[in-house]
Write a structure and sequence with these properties.
Layout: H1 6-12, E1 21-24, E2 29-31, H2 32-48, E3 56-60, H3 65-76, E4 80-83, H4 90-100, E5 104-107, H5 112-116, E6 125-128, H6 136-140, E7 158-164, E8 172-177, H7 178-191, E9 199-202, H8 209-222, E10 225-228, H9 234-240, E11 246-249, H10 251-258, E12 273-276, H11 283-293, E13 298-303, E14 307-311, E15 325-326, E16 331-335, E17 348-353, E18 360-361, H12 365-371, E19 378-386, E20 392-397, E21 402-404, E22 407-409, H13 411-419, E23 424-434, E24 438-447, H14 454-461, E25 473-476, H15 490-496
Parallel strand pairs: 1-10, 3-4, 3-5, 5-6, 9-10, 9-11, 11-12, 12-13, 24-25
Antiparallel strand pairs: 1-2, 7-8, 8-18, 13-14, 14-15, 16-17, 17-19, 19-20, 21-22, 23-24
Helix pairs in contact: 1-7, 2-3, 7-8, 10-11
Length: about 500
């Protein structure tokens, strides 16, 4: 029997009438009933402006409760949610809008006039939503009904598109179905032992899978609560921990907390579970955090295309430097370049299969075909090895991808932007160790203009790529190091500049 709306029914429906507090921030507390009243108003409005099943709702807005309600309303009204990083430039947004052709676009007031000028938005309804929850979206839903019957959607229908950059420089839209999102929430609920008694300290952005699907869907499915803060801040985190039972973060959160003298067993005593993901957590961070707080961080491994794939165990040994074992229902193999399984301790590429794995890339049949093996396994591009107990250790990524502050950065995209600059002959972008971001983006440039200054290059990139992708440093060489085949040796660049940000 097909559910009326698979994702909504499985994750949100049971909580619609709960009087329990769902969301808490600095200025308000919202019960599940109150939250769903907002959801239903937005759902009614989306139908009023002719949102049809499968239509995309693209959102680039600062994190707030209305935006979270918009996500749920989009699903409930039969649409496809398309969250966009708040750092994306107008140039990047134009590509996404042209590719996904959203029916509804929601942006901050500050950029509405610029969005109006993009030709690819001509047929879309453009609304605004600001950090303080003001904007045309909030105004227009005021008089709509707080009742709404969910539009029918099956488990295989598209629920969301999340863009992930590609090594070619062209972003790809990962298509996630209702079943992809539900299956992962159900598994994580059981593996991490979340219940209605949990209060999650939520300081992640909600434009990617970690903050939106892993955190919000998980707490909604169990009927728990979230302390829903705009962004991470050390003082705020330490203050709100007293009322929380769990916290999700990227490694940067934990390194910054460790820099505070206030982090100790007293400030963390109420937290039963600290989770880290989106980038590798250094073993020393894991060990030092346990020494200071008595709590072992639980590290896991996921991707935009798959949500969560592996996790260190809740009750068993949490090994520093590993991302644990496959989650129930997820098949993982580590293979060499010929596609053969490698022995434990040997490095290979992670390939995986499961109900959590996306169906393909939006409008890119060839890219989708390249991403999957004939037997249905998804080729992640992540390099790993298994230890003697089967725990996965992520050792790198093919295609030279960088993870800076928990966000994926693809060198080719930045190199293409740099190479557009006059007098640039070539460039190479790499990630090098950084105490705060995990990896920092740097660009090594060869220019015919020997007077070219670093600031000039950075200024050129300012409006071309999102801030988190912009290099922390621009370095100049007369020529890039190459091997006998003429290929740029990025490994050499990483080694040569590995100490650039060391204290």
């Amino acid at each position: 029997m097909t559910e009326a709306n698979y994702l909504f029914d499985k994750i949100f429906k049971s909580n619609e009438t709960k009087e329990k507090i769902f969301l808490i921030n600095e200025s308000k507390k919202l019960t599940y009933i109150e939250f769903h009243e907002v959801v239903n108003k937005i759902s009614n409005y989306l139908i009023e402006i002719d949102l049809s099943p499968g239509d995309r709702v693209a959102v680039q807005a600062e994190k707030n409760i209305i935006q979270l309600a918009l996500y749920v309303a989009t699903i409930k009204a039969g649409g496809v949610y398309l969250p966009l990083n708040t750092g994306y430039t107008l140039n990047e947004l134009e590509y996404f809008f042209d590719d996904a052709k959203p029916k509804v676009i929601v942006v901050d007031d500050k950029i509405q006039s610029k969005i109006d000028s993009i030709a690819s938005t001509s047929s879309a309804s453009i609304l605004t939503l600001n950090l303080d929850e003001s904007g045309s979206l909030t105004e227009r839903i005021k008089n709509y009904s707080t009742k709404f019957h969910a539009i029918a959607r099956s488990e295989n229908d598209l629920a969301a598109i999340l863009y992930t950059s590609g090594t070619t420089g062209k972003s790809k839209g990962a298509m996630l179905s209702h079943r992809n999102l539900v299956s992962n929430s159900e598994v994580l609920r059981d593996v991490w032992k979340f219940s209605e008694n949990d209060v999650l300290l939520h300081m992640l952005p909600i434009y990617h899978t970690h903050g939106l699907f892993v955190a919000c869907n998980l707490l909604a499915i169990v009927g728990g609560s979230m302390i829903f803060l705009e962004k991470f801040d050390v003082k705020e985190a330490l203050f709100w921990m007293k009322g929380a039972t769990s916290m999700m973060g990227v490694p940067t959160f934990y390194t910054r907390l460790l820099a505070s003298d206030e982090l100790n067993t007293d400030t963390t005593q109420h937290i039963r579970l600290f989770i880290s993901g989106s980038a590798p957590l250094l073993s020393e961070t894991h060990i030092e955090f346990e020494r200071r707080t008595g709590k072992k961080i639980l590290e896991r491994y996921g991707m935009t295309e798959t949500n969560m794939n592996t996790s260190n165990p809740y009750d068993g040994e949490r090994k520093a430097g590993t991302v644990g074992i496959p989650l129930p229902g997820v098949e993982i193999r580590v293979v060499n370049e010929e596609g053969h399984l490698v022995e434990h301790g040997k490095i290979g590429t992670i390939e995986l299969k499961g109900e959590n794995v996306f169906s393909g890339y939006w409008g890119m049949k060839e890219k989708t075909k390249e991403a999957f093996k004939k037997d249905g396994f998804f080729i992640t591009g992540d390099l790993a090895q298994r230890d003697e107990d089967g725990y996965l250790i992520i050792v790198g990524r093919d295609k030279d991808m960088i993870i800076s502050g928990g966000l994926n950065v693809y060198p080719k995209e930045i190199e293409d932007a740099i190479n557009e600059m006059p007098n640039i002959l070539e460039s190479a972008v790499v990630g090098i160790p950084h105490h705060d971001f995990g990896e920092a983006v740097i660009a090594v440039v060869v220019s015919s203009d020997k007077t070219l200054a670093e600031i000039k290059v950075l200024d050129f990139l300012k409006d071309k790529i999102a801030k988190y992708k912009q290099p922390k440093r621009i370095l100049f060489l007369d020529e890039l190091p190459r091997n006998t085949m003429g290929k740029v040796q990025k490994k050499v660049l990483r080694e040569n500049y590995s100490d650039l940000f060391k204290n």
